[in-house]
Amino acid sequence: MKNRRDFLKTSTVAALAAGNLPYWFSGASVQAYNFQAPNERLNIGSIGTGDRWKQVIPNAMNYCNVMAVCDVDAEHRGEGAGIVQKTPGQKGGEVRMYEDYRKILDRKDIDIVTIITPDHWHSKIAIEALRAGKDVYCEKPLTLTIDEGKQIIKAMEETKRVFQVGTQQRSEMSARSGDKTFPHQFLTAVAMVRLGRIGQVKKVTCDIGGAPTSGAIPKGDAPRHLNWDMWLGQAPLVDYRFQEGGGKWGQSRCHYEFRWWYEYSGGKMTDWGAHHVDIATWAIGMENSGPISVEGTAEHPVPFKDGHPTKDDQYNAAHKFDITVMYPNGVEMHVVSNSTDGNGILFEGTEGRLFVSRGALKGKPVEDLATNPLPDDAIANLYKGKKPGDHMRNFMECVKDRAQPISDVWTHHRSMTTCHLSNIAIRLGRKLNWDAEKQEIVGDPQAKLFQAREQRKGYEITG
Ligand SMILES: NC(=O)c1ccc[n+]([C@@H]2O[C@H](COP(=O)([O-])OP(=O)(O)OC[C@H]3O[C@@H](n4cnc5c(N)ncnc54)[C@H](O)[C@@H]3O)[C@@H](O)[C@H]2O)c1
Fold it and tell me: What pLDDT does residue 8 have?
């Protein structure tokens, strides 16, 4: 009898070989993707069990056994383990808890690692997980710097593992337009633009919203259940800061609120750019390439000098911005914190405009689909022959058939590069020229330094 590892090596989706039809038209696919048989059920080690974990892992438990949870906050890992133990079909008390993710990477019985930590930890854990032979599901934004993307790609090319980035807009969500519901509005929009339904694309506007600001946040002792040094990882060793107020999580430089500090994240630019800039880049056919220049204006909550914030006690990521990105195919992309259309993506071409967001797909070209629908295989072709609708399931199917999932590292790295360049441009307050072939900022040695970051001793990315 085949064991789980053998199955991973040999399983292919027989249905795909049967012809050009999307596999979900074939009964064989049901057989190929059996996630329930005990010898085919994969084991997950889950690293980072905070807010997002509670949205992602319940679905993953439909396909896998969560055998280990890891968090540098003992309260969060305890809560995570409790949820797993109470979930029917999981292995109850067998789930182990860890503070140090490397203990999970050492376990031979763990097939898959999920990384749902703050952004400044993603790349290091991902690279070590790949080298430990794990398949990886890692939340967006995958990287904190452009060079981290290159490092992950190098590790992918060496290890040939399966990697899904958590940009679920590529798989999920449905929106109404007139009297029609589109089950996959982002895929439909991407297919329409790529198939010329708005003519030649001229302009794309990604409205990703602004970020909150804060006043000075007081120093305090980190909670006893939190390993603050490990939470900081590669980032500089600084005081813990927290105060009640602001959003649900208070104001801090830690849980959830890390998004508004450049030391740990890229602000809204990467938080939501990872979604909308990603979809826009795919639609205009630049997902394996990149811009030629990036410039813009922004407001930051604190003054900046030489690209660095001059205060260390309050949020520092841009809260307002208006970026212009030029592509070699003539498309002009705007990444803005505010627009008349609201959060979403507006595509403008020589033959029409269409707007897509989490709640809408609209515009004359969308109405025209009633009389001139997309070809039957348009979505399937875009979705690499698999059935969209569930981002985690797409990853699990790829773990079985060893294909790369819909949110692959290579194309995600390209859209993140645009977001990172946007941040570098507004931090330094000048236009950047980009060589997409060499993946280097041209003619600006100071800006080029921002393609990477300093890594605190003991937490460097190696290899
Ligand atoms: N795809 C989406 O739509 C979506 C939505 C929300 C969040 N996210 C992403 O998910 C990630 C987590 O966001 P969140 O809101 O859950 O943050 P969070 O602060 O609530 O949770 C992160 C958890 O990671 C833990 N952690 C930090 N360093 C760690 C380490 N070295 N090892 C183990 N655990 C560590 C923290 O203690 C915390 O419990 C972010 O990258 C965020 O962008 C994606």
Answer: 39
Instruction: Check pocket membership of 357 for ligand 1, CB cut-off 6 A.
Output: no
Does one domain contain both 138 and 187?
A: no
Q: What is the span of the domain harbouring residue 239?
A: 174-389+409-463
323 alpha carbon – ligand 1 mean position (Å):
27
445 plus 401 within the same structural domain? no
Tell me if 49 CB under 6 Å of ligand 1: yes
**Closest Cα to atom 28 of ligand 1:** 231
| Pair 214, 347 in one domain | yes
Dump pLDDT digits (tens) for 161-201.
999 999 999 999 888 777 788 899 999 999 999 999 999 99
Pairing outcome for strands 96-98 and 64-70: parallel
Cβ atoms 392, 263 nearer than 8 A: no
131-167 pLDDT per residue, tens: 999 999 999 999 999 999 999 999 999 999 999 999 9
Same domain, 319 and 256: yes
Q: Is 118 in the pocket of ligand 1 (CB under 6 A)?
A: yes
Q: Is 47 a pocket residue for ligand 1 (Cβ < 6 Å)?
A: yes
> Phi/psi at 321 (nearest 5 deg)?
-160, 155
264-302 tens-digit pLDDT? 999 999 999 999 999 999 999 999 999 999 999 999 999
Q: How far is the CA of 434 from the centre of ligand 1 (A)?
A: 30
Q: Is the pTM of this model over 0.70?
A: yes
Same domain, 226 and 193: yes
Residues 246 and 127 in one domain: no
Residue nearest to atom 21 of ligand 1 (CA): 50
138 C-alpha to center of ligand 1: Å? 10
Atom of ligand 1 nearest to the CA of 56: 1
CATH number, domain of 274, equals: 3.30.360.10
Residue located nearest, by CA, to atom 39 of ligand 1: 50
Nearest ligand 1 atom to the CA of 233 is: 31
Which one, of 191, 130, 166, 122, lies nearest residue 406 by Cα? 166
Sign of CA dihedral 429, 430, 431, 433: negative
Q: Is the pLDDT of residue 78 over 70?
A: yes
233 and 151 in one domain? Answer: no
Q: Is the CB of 301 under 6 A from ligand 1?
A: no
Specify the residue for token string 């804060």.
214
Residues 361 and 376 in one domain: yes
274, 36, 266, 38: which is closest to 140 by C-alpha? 274
Residue 406 confidence (pLDDT): 98
Total domains present in the chain = 2
Domain of 37: which CATH number? 3.40.50.720
What residue spans of 297-388 are helical by DSSP H? 364-367, 378-382
